[in-house]
Amino acid sequence: MQTAGTSLQVIGALVAAAGILYAWNRASALTAGVAAAALAFAPLAAADVPGIGPFVGNWGAHEEGLTINADGSGRETYNDRSSCPDAPMSGCGVTGTVDLRLTSASGDIATGNIIAASNPKTPVGGTVKVQLVETGPAPGAGLQLWVQGGDGGFPFCKIGPDGNRINQYYCGA
After folding, report:
1. Are residues 87 and 112 in the same domain?
2. What is the spatial distance between Cα 23 and Cα 14, in angstroms, rounded to a whole number?
3. Structural domain range at position 65
4. Domain count, the chain
5. What are phi and psi of 44, to 5 degrees?
6. Distance set, CA 1 to CA 5, 6, 13, 111, 170 (Å)
7. Distance CA 125, CA 100 (A)
8. pLDDT digits over 54-113, tens only?
9. Are residues 148 and 90 part of one domain?
């Protein structure tokens, strides 16, 4: 036969167990919420930019360079004449940079934004567009770049495995 004291002990043990389960479920929900938030704000990965493959690689024209990575990040380098406007087209020894992030690609066009720039005339957050163009016998070897506040359809040639520009006549010397 159970006494009132024994019953209270059993009830107390059940309440304590329920409290532990409540705390565990609450912690699990909090952990799941933190994990979901982390995923929502995670940087883009290569799989997040479908269709980026044909744009990936090194591109060049004259003294300019463009690198596009599989995750959509990229960098343009160029002779920045903004501090010496009377200098020849070859520049005055200042290398300008535009860091970019391509966020979508469809067919022959990829778009994104400027994430950093050495020239203040190139606005951070401004738009970037790249378009693949046919340049002759090597399809996909040409690209045009538009950067808000900078290049407007500048032609680049794909840099081949040998380090030379493919279809160089398209992008100049």
Report:
1. yes
2. 14
3. 47-171
4. 2
5. -65, 140
6. 12, 10, 19, 79, 98
7. 9
8. 999 999 988 889 999 999 999 999 888 777 777 766 667 788 999 999 999 999 999 999
9. yes
In this structure, are 72 and 121 located in the same domain? yes
User: Degrees (nearest 5) of the Cα angle 105, 108, 109?
Assistant: 50
Q: What is the DSSP string of 79-140?
A: E--TT-TTS-TT-SSPEEEEEEEEEEEETTEEEEEEEEESSTTS-TT-EEEEEEE--SSSTT
> pLDDT per residue over 11-40, tens digit each?
444 444 445 434 434 444 433 443 333 333
Tell me if the pTM is above 0.85. no
Distances (CA, A) of 12 to 3, 6, 8, 22: 14, 10, 6, 15
Which helix (H) or strand (E) segment is 27 a member of? helix 4-40
Residues 79 and 105 in one domain: yes
